[in-house]
Amino acid sequence: xxxxxxxxxxxxxxxxxxxxxxxxxxxxxxxxxxxxxxxxxxxxxxxxxxxxxxxxxxxxxxxxxxxxxxxxxxxxxxxxxxxxxxxxxxxxxxxxxxxxxxxxxxxxxxxxxxxxxxxxxxxxxxxxxxxxxxxxxxxxxxxxxxxxxxxxxxxxxxxxxxxxxxxxxxxxxxxxxxxxxxxxxxxxxxxxxxxxxxxxxxxxxxxxxxxxxxxxxxxxxxxxxxxxxxxxxxxxxxxxxxxxxxxxxxxxxxxxxxxxxxxxxxxxxxxxxxxxxxxxxxxxxxxxxxxxxxxxxxxxxxxxxxxxxxxxxxxxxxxxxxxxxxxxxxxxxxxxxxxxxxxxxxxxxxxxxxxxxxxxxxxxxxxxxxxxxxxxxxxxxxxxxxx
Length: 387
Ligand code: SOE
What we know:
By secondary structure, this protein is α/β, with parallel strands linked by helices. Helices cover 33% and strands 24% of the residues. It has ten helices and 17 strands. Helix 4 (86-95) runs parallel beside helix 5 and helix 5 (110-123) runs antiparallel to helix 10 (361-380). The longest helix has 20 residues, at 361-380. It is globular, with a radius of gyration of 21 Å.
Protein backbone atom coordinates (compact mmCIF):
# COMPACT_ATOMS: atom_id res chain seq x y z
CA UNK A 1 0.00 0.00 0.00
CA UNK A 2 1.20 3.48 -0.91
CA UNK A 3 2.61 5.59 1.93
CA UNK A 4 2.93 9.39 1.85
CA UNK A 5 5.31 11.22 4.18
CA UNK A 6 3.84 14.25 5.90
CA UNK A 7 5.76 17.33 7.02
CA UNK A 8 3.67 19.37 9.42
CA UNK A 9 4.46 23.01 10.13
CA UNK A 10 3.00 24.16 13.44
CA UNK A 11 2.08 22.03 16.44
CA UNK A 12 -0.69 23.76 18.41
CA UNK A 13 -4.37 22.87 18.66
CA UNK A 14 -4.63 22.24 14.90
CA UNK A 15 -1.36 20.26 14.91
CA UNK A 16 -2.97 17.95 17.45
CA UNK A 17 -6.14 17.56 15.36
CA UNK A 18 -4.22 16.91 12.13
CA UNK A 19 -1.78 14.45 13.75
CA UNK A 20 -4.68 12.50 15.18
CA UNK A 21 -6.23 12.32 11.72
CA UNK A 22 -2.98 11.09 10.09
CA UNK A 23 -2.70 8.29 12.64
CA UNK A 24 -6.38 7.34 12.67
CA UNK A 25 -7.47 7.71 9.02
CA UNK A 26 -6.40 4.15 7.98
CA UNK A 27 -8.11 2.73 11.08
CA UNK A 28 -11.42 4.21 9.89
CA UNK A 29 -11.07 4.06 6.10
CA UNK A 30 -9.58 0.71 5.18
CA UNK A 31 -8.14 -0.02 2.73
CA UNK A 32 -6.76 3.49 3.02
CA UNK A 33 -6.15 5.37 -0.24
CA UNK A 34 -2.59 5.94 1.06
CA UNK A 35 -1.07 5.69 4.52
CA UNK A 36 0.03 9.01 6.05
CA UNK A 37 3.43 8.74 7.73
CA UNK A 38 4.16 11.42 10.33
CA UNK A 39 7.68 12.18 9.14
CA UNK A 40 8.76 15.65 10.25
CA UNK A 41 7.33 18.46 12.35
CA UNK A 42 8.44 22.09 12.66
CA UNK A 43 7.74 24.38 15.58
CA UNK A 44 9.11 27.75 16.66
CA UNK A 45 12.09 26.50 18.73
CA UNK A 46 14.17 23.27 18.73
CA UNK A 47 12.82 22.48 22.17
CA UNK A 48 9.18 22.96 21.19
CA UNK A 49 9.72 20.96 17.99
CA UNK A 50 11.37 18.07 19.85
CA UNK A 51 8.51 17.99 22.33
CA UNK A 52 5.95 18.17 19.48
CA UNK A 53 7.60 15.24 17.69
CA UNK A 54 7.24 13.09 20.82
CA UNK A 55 3.73 14.25 21.63
CA UNK A 56 2.35 14.00 18.10
CA UNK A 57 4.31 10.99 16.87
CA UNK A 58 6.65 12.48 14.24
CA UNK A 59 10.01 10.84 13.41
CA UNK A 60 11.99 14.05 12.82
CA UNK A 61 11.76 17.64 14.01
CA UNK A 62 13.19 21.08 13.26
CA UNK A 63 12.83 24.72 14.23
CA UNK A 64 13.18 25.75 10.57
CA UNK A 65 10.06 25.16 8.46
CA UNK A 66 12.15 25.46 5.27
CA UNK A 67 13.93 22.25 6.22
CA UNK A 68 10.57 20.45 6.10
CA UNK A 69 9.58 21.96 2.77
CA UNK A 70 12.96 21.13 1.22
CA UNK A 71 13.26 17.62 2.67
CA UNK A 72 13.38 15.20 -0.31
CA UNK A 73 11.40 12.48 1.51
CA UNK A 74 8.39 14.67 2.30
CA UNK A 75 5.37 14.27 -0.03
CA UNK A 76 2.73 16.36 1.76
CA UNK A 77 3.10 19.69 3.57
CA UNK A 78 0.51 20.41 6.25
CA UNK A 79 0.28 24.10 7.25
CA UNK A 80 -1.18 24.61 10.74
CA UNK A 81 0.43 27.95 11.60
CA UNK A 82 -1.15 31.40 12.15
CA UNK A 83 -2.52 32.99 8.98
CA UNK A 84 0.34 35.38 8.21
CA UNK A 85 2.71 32.50 7.36
CA UNK A 86 0.36 30.45 5.15
CA UNK A 87 1.32 32.14 1.87
CA UNK A 88 5.09 32.04 2.29
CA UNK A 89 5.08 28.38 3.33
CA UNK A 90 2.56 27.26 0.70
CA UNK A 91 4.35 29.02 -2.14
CA UNK A 92 7.70 27.50 -1.11
CA UNK A 93 6.08 24.06 -0.72
CA UNK A 94 4.46 24.29 -4.17
CA UNK A 95 7.81 25.25 -5.73
CA UNK A 96 9.32 22.18 -4.05
CA UNK A 97 6.60 20.03 -5.69
CA UNK A 98 4.80 19.05 -2.46
CA UNK A 99 1.06 18.47 -2.08
CA UNK A 100 -0.40 20.94 0.42
CA UNK A 101 -3.15 20.98 3.00
CA UNK A 102 -3.54 24.39 4.64
CA UNK A 103 -5.63 25.43 7.63
CA UNK A 104 -8.36 28.01 7.10
CA UNK A 105 -8.66 30.80 6.24
CA UNK A 106 -6.34 30.16 3.29
CA UNK A 107 -4.77 33.62 3.63
CA UNK A 108 -5.18 37.04 5.22
CA UNK A 109 -6.80 38.46 2.09
CA UNK A 110 -7.66 37.63 -1.50
CA UNK A 111 -4.39 38.93 -2.98
CA UNK A 112 -2.40 36.54 -0.81
CA UNK A 113 -4.79 33.68 -1.54
CA UNK A 114 -4.45 34.31 -5.30
CA UNK A 115 -0.65 34.09 -5.12
CA UNK A 116 -1.04 30.74 -3.33
CA UNK A 117 -3.51 29.46 -5.91
CA UNK A 118 -1.22 30.50 -8.78
CA UNK A 119 1.73 28.71 -7.12
CA UNK A 120 -0.07 25.37 -6.65
CA UNK A 121 -1.59 25.47 -10.12
CA UNK A 122 1.80 26.21 -11.70
CA UNK A 123 3.36 23.33 -9.74
CA UNK A 124 0.55 20.87 -10.54
CA UNK A 125 0.35 19.66 -6.92
CA UNK A 126 -2.81 18.74 -4.98
CA UNK A 127 -4.11 21.41 -2.64
CA UNK A 128 -6.80 21.59 -0.01
CA UNK A 129 -8.11 24.09 2.57
CA UNK A 130 -9.13 22.57 5.89
CA UNK A 131 -12.80 23.57 6.08
CA UNK A 132 -13.46 20.40 8.06
CA UNK A 133 -17.06 21.12 9.09
CA UNK A 134 -18.42 20.23 5.66
CA UNK A 135 -17.13 16.70 6.38
CA UNK A 136 -19.69 16.25 9.17
CA UNK A 137 -21.89 13.39 7.88
CA UNK A 138 -25.11 15.31 8.63
CA UNK A 139 -23.83 18.21 6.48
CA UNK A 140 -22.86 15.87 3.64
CA UNK A 141 -26.36 14.37 3.99
CA UNK A 142 -27.89 17.85 3.63
CA UNK A 143 -25.90 18.24 0.42
CA UNK A 144 -27.26 14.90 -0.83
CA UNK A 145 -30.86 15.97 -0.14
CA UNK A 146 -30.29 19.23 -2.00
CA UNK A 147 -28.67 17.50 -4.99
CA UNK A 148 -31.54 15.01 -5.16
CA UNK A 149 -34.00 17.91 -5.29
CA UNK A 150 -35.68 16.85 -2.02
CA UNK A 151 -36.22 20.45 -0.87
CA UNK A 152 -36.76 21.85 -4.37
CA UNK A 153 -35.32 25.15 -5.45
CA UNK A 154 -33.37 26.87 -2.69
CA UNK A 155 -34.79 30.20 -1.57
CA UNK A 156 -32.86 31.09 1.57
CA UNK A 157 -29.72 30.18 3.55
CA UNK A 158 -29.30 31.37 7.17
CA UNK A 159 -25.94 30.56 8.71
CA UNK A 160 -24.46 31.40 12.11
CA UNK A 161 -21.23 30.68 13.91
CA UNK A 162 -21.41 31.81 17.52
CA UNK A 163 -18.73 31.27 20.16
CA UNK A 164 -17.98 33.02 23.46
CA UNK A 165 -14.30 32.42 24.14
CA UNK A 166 -13.37 36.05 23.42
CA UNK A 167 -16.30 37.73 25.21
CA UNK A 168 -14.22 38.41 28.34
CA UNK A 169 -12.30 41.69 27.88
CA UNK A 170 -9.42 40.13 29.82
CA UNK A 171 -8.90 37.24 27.45
CA UNK A 172 -5.51 38.06 25.95
CA UNK A 173 -4.59 39.72 22.69
CA UNK A 174 -3.53 36.58 20.84
CA UNK A 175 -2.63 36.65 17.14
CA UNK A 176 -6.32 36.15 16.39
CA UNK A 177 -7.00 39.80 17.33
CA UNK A 178 -4.20 41.28 15.21
CA UNK A 179 -4.92 42.20 11.61
CA UNK A 180 -1.27 41.91 10.57
CA UNK A 181 -1.27 38.25 11.62
CA UNK A 182 -4.86 37.09 11.23
CA UNK A 183 -6.12 39.34 8.39
CA UNK A 184 -9.53 39.68 10.05
CA UNK A 185 -11.25 38.59 13.27
CA UNK A 186 -14.38 36.47 13.65
CA UNK A 187 -14.82 36.78 9.87
CA UNK A 188 -11.70 34.86 8.84
CA UNK A 189 -11.52 32.65 11.91
CA UNK A 190 -15.05 31.26 12.03
CA UNK A 191 -17.19 33.17 9.50
CA UNK A 192 -15.28 31.50 6.66
CA UNK A 193 -16.58 28.10 7.84
CA UNK A 194 -20.14 29.36 7.28
CA UNK A 195 -19.21 30.88 3.92
CA UNK A 196 -17.86 27.43 3.01
CA UNK A 197 -21.22 25.88 4.02
CA UNK A 198 -23.13 28.46 1.98
CA UNK A 199 -21.11 27.80 -1.18
CA UNK A 200 -21.06 24.01 -0.67
CA UNK A 201 -24.79 23.73 -0.09
CA UNK A 202 -26.34 26.57 -2.08
CA UNK A 203 -23.86 27.86 -4.65
CA UNK A 204 -21.71 30.85 -5.50
CA UNK A 205 -22.12 34.14 -3.64
CA UNK A 206 -22.17 37.20 -5.89
CA UNK A 207 -22.91 40.16 -3.62
CA UNK A 208 -22.79 41.00 0.08
CA UNK A 209 -24.03 43.76 2.38
CA UNK A 210 -22.40 43.69 5.80
CA UNK A 211 -21.87 45.26 9.19
CA UNK A 212 -18.84 44.59 11.41
CA UNK A 213 -18.26 45.48 15.07
CA UNK A 214 -15.27 45.47 17.38
CA UNK A 215 -16.80 45.41 20.85
CA UNK A 216 -13.59 45.06 22.87
CA UNK A 217 -11.15 47.58 21.48
CA UNK A 218 -8.10 46.63 23.54
CA UNK A 219 -6.93 43.51 25.34
CA UNK A 220 -4.12 42.52 27.71
CA UNK A 221 -0.94 41.62 25.85
CA UNK A 222 -0.49 37.84 25.72
CA UNK A 223 2.42 36.73 27.86
CA UNK A 224 2.72 33.06 26.92
CA UNK A 225 3.43 32.11 23.30
CA UNK A 226 0.62 29.58 23.28
CA UNK A 227 -2.86 30.54 22.10
CA UNK A 228 -5.26 29.24 24.76
CA UNK A 229 -8.40 30.62 23.11
CA UNK A 230 -9.64 32.58 26.10
CA UNK A 231 -9.05 29.92 28.73
CA UNK A 232 -6.13 31.84 30.26
CA UNK A 233 -7.09 35.32 31.42
CA UNK A 234 -4.74 38.27 31.34
CA UNK A 235 -4.68 40.39 34.48
CA UNK A 236 -6.96 43.43 34.43
CA UNK A 237 -3.85 45.53 35.23
CA UNK A 238 -1.70 44.11 32.44
CA UNK A 239 -0.48 46.26 29.58
CA UNK A 240 -3.18 46.50 26.93
CA UNK A 241 -2.90 46.88 23.16
CA UNK A 242 -5.51 47.64 20.52
CA UNK A 243 -7.63 45.04 18.75
CA UNK A 244 -7.78 45.94 15.05
CA UNK A 245 -10.08 43.21 13.74
CA UNK A 246 -13.82 42.52 13.90
CA UNK A 247 -15.32 40.76 16.93
CA UNK A 248 -18.55 40.20 15.04
CA UNK A 249 -20.02 40.49 11.55
CA UNK A 250 -23.44 40.14 9.98
CA UNK A 251 -23.85 39.93 6.21
CA UNK A 252 -26.71 39.61 3.77
CA UNK A 253 -25.97 37.46 0.73
CA UNK A 254 -27.11 37.26 -2.87
CA UNK A 255 -26.33 33.94 -4.56
CA UNK A 256 -25.78 33.51 -8.33
CA UNK A 257 -28.78 31.15 -8.50
CA UNK A 258 -31.14 33.80 -7.13
CA UNK A 259 -31.27 32.54 -3.53
CA UNK A 260 -30.76 35.04 -0.73
CA UNK A 261 -29.22 34.54 2.67
CA UNK A 262 -27.48 35.81 5.75
CA UNK A 263 -24.43 34.89 7.77
CA UNK A 264 -23.42 36.04 11.21
CA UNK A 265 -20.45 35.18 13.35
CA UNK A 266 -19.15 36.26 16.73
CA UNK A 267 -16.70 34.99 19.32
CA UNK A 268 -18.41 37.17 21.97
CA UNK A 269 -21.79 35.46 22.21
CA UNK A 270 -21.96 34.37 25.87
CA UNK A 271 -23.29 30.86 26.30
CA UNK A 272 -22.59 29.80 22.73
CA UNK A 273 -19.60 27.48 22.30
CA UNK A 274 -19.49 26.07 18.80
CA UNK A 275 -22.92 27.15 17.60
CA UNK A 276 -22.33 26.58 13.90
CA UNK A 277 -25.72 26.33 12.21
CA UNK A 278 -27.58 26.58 8.95
CA UNK A 279 -31.23 26.60 8.05
CA UNK A 280 -32.09 26.25 4.37
CA UNK A 281 -35.54 26.82 2.95
CA UNK A 282 -36.48 25.40 -0.43
CA UNK A 283 -39.70 25.33 -2.43
CA UNK A 284 -40.36 21.73 -1.25
CA UNK A 285 -38.91 21.64 2.25
CA UNK A 286 -36.32 22.80 4.74
CA UNK A 287 -33.12 21.57 6.39
CA UNK A 288 -31.64 22.59 9.75
CA UNK A 289 -28.26 21.70 11.27
CA UNK A 290 -26.43 22.75 14.44
CA UNK A 291 -22.87 21.48 14.99
CA UNK A 292 -23.53 21.36 18.75
CA UNK A 293 -25.83 18.40 17.87
CA UNK A 294 -23.67 17.25 15.02
CA UNK A 295 -25.11 13.76 14.57
CA UNK A 296 -28.50 15.21 13.73
CA UNK A 297 -30.00 16.71 10.60
CA UNK A 298 -33.52 18.09 10.84
CA UNK A 299 -35.58 17.79 7.69
CA UNK A 300 -39.03 18.98 6.66
CA UNK A 301 -40.73 17.92 3.42
CA UNK A 302 -43.94 19.37 1.94
CA UNK A 303 -44.73 16.02 0.32
CA UNK A 304 -45.38 14.47 3.75
CA UNK A 305 -49.15 14.11 4.31
CA UNK A 306 -50.57 17.34 5.74
CA UNK A 307 -51.42 15.70 9.07
CA UNK A 308 -47.83 14.31 9.48
CA UNK A 309 -45.90 17.38 8.51
CA UNK A 310 -43.20 18.69 10.82
CA UNK A 311 -39.43 18.71 11.22
CA UNK A 312 -38.04 15.25 11.92
CA UNK A 313 -34.56 14.37 13.11
CA UNK A 314 -32.24 12.00 11.29
CA UNK A 315 -29.35 10.64 13.38
CA UNK A 316 -26.46 9.95 11.05
CA UNK A 317 -24.84 6.52 11.07
CA UNK A 318 -23.64 3.75 8.78
CA UNK A 319 -26.29 4.48 6.10
CA UNK A 320 -25.10 8.06 5.65
CA UNK A 321 -22.14 9.75 3.92
CA UNK A 322 -18.80 8.39 5.25
CA UNK A 323 -20.89 5.99 7.38
CA UNK A 324 -19.09 2.78 6.41
CA UNK A 325 -15.82 4.20 7.69
CA UNK A 326 -17.21 5.51 10.98
CA UNK A 327 -19.16 3.82 13.78
CA UNK A 328 -21.60 0.89 13.33
CA UNK A 329 -24.72 2.35 15.02
CA UNK A 330 -26.39 5.76 14.39
CA UNK A 331 -25.88 8.31 17.17
CA UNK A 332 -22.81 6.64 18.68
CA UNK A 333 -21.53 10.10 17.98
CA UNK A 334 -18.91 11.73 15.85
CA UNK A 335 -16.77 14.64 16.97
CA UNK A 336 -14.25 17.19 15.80
CA UNK A 337 -11.65 14.43 15.38
CA UNK A 338 -13.79 12.49 12.95
CA UNK A 339 -14.32 15.54 10.73
CA UNK A 340 -10.54 15.85 10.49
CA UNK A 341 -10.11 12.12 9.81
CA UNK A 342 -12.60 12.37 6.93
CA UNK A 343 -10.81 15.47 5.65
CA UNK A 344 -7.50 13.58 5.61
CA UNK A 345 -9.18 10.64 3.88
CA UNK A 346 -10.49 12.94 1.10
CA UNK A 347 -7.11 14.60 0.63
CA UNK A 348 -5.08 11.39 0.51
CA UNK A 349 -7.65 9.86 -1.86
CA UNK A 350 -7.24 12.80 -4.23
CA UNK A 351 -3.46 12.39 -4.16
CA UNK A 352 -3.59 8.60 -4.63
CA UNK A 353 -6.19 8.78 -7.41
CA UNK A 354 -4.86 11.99 -8.97
CA UNK A 355 -8.33 13.57 -8.73
CA UNK A 356 -9.62 17.05 -7.81
CA UNK A 357 -10.50 17.66 -4.20
CA UNK A 358 -12.71 20.35 -2.72
CA UNK A 359 -12.47 22.70 -0.89
CA UNK A 360 -9.16 23.50 -2.57
CA UNK A 361 -7.11 26.70 -2.93
CA UNK A 362 -9.54 27.92 -5.64
CA UNK A 363 -12.35 27.69 -3.06
CA UNK A 364 -10.07 29.27 -0.46
CA UNK A 365 -9.37 32.15 -2.85
CA UNK A 366 -13.07 32.71 -3.57
CA UNK A 367 -13.84 32.66 0.16
CA UNK A 368 -11.09 35.23 0.67
CA UNK A 369 -12.70 37.39 -2.05
CA UNK A 370 -16.08 37.09 -0.30
CA UNK A 371 -14.45 38.00 3.04
CA UNK A 372 -12.75 41.03 1.50
CA UNK A 373 -16.10 42.08 0.01
CA UNK A 374 -17.75 41.78 3.46
CA UNK A 375 -15.13 44.09 5.00
CA UNK A 376 -15.45 46.54 2.08
CA UNK A 377 -19.22 46.52 2.34
CA UNK A 378 -19.10 47.23 6.09
CA UNK A 379 -16.67 50.10 5.49
CA UNK A 380 -18.71 51.62 2.64
CA UNK A 381 -22.13 50.71 4.10
CA UNK A 382 -23.36 49.44 0.74
CA UNK A 383 -23.80 46.24 -1.29
CA UNK A 384 -20.48 45.06 -2.80
CA UNK A 385 -19.97 42.66 -5.72
CA UNK A 386 -17.54 39.86 -4.94
CA UNK A 387 -14.25 39.77 -6.92
C1 SOE B 1 -11.34 29.51 17.25
O1 SOE B 1 -12.39 30.36 17.01
C2 SOE B 1 -11.47 28.18 16.52
O2 SOE B 1 -10.42 27.37 16.97
C3 SOE B 1 -11.38 28.30 15.00
O3 SOE B 1 -10.13 28.83 14.60
C4 SOE B 1 -11.61 26.94 14.36
O4 SOE B 1 -11.60 27.02 12.95
C5 SOE B 1 -12.94 26.39 14.85
O5 SOE B 1 -13.14 25.13 14.31
C6 SOE B 1 -12.98 26.29 16.35
O6 SOE B 1 -12.71 27.58 16.88
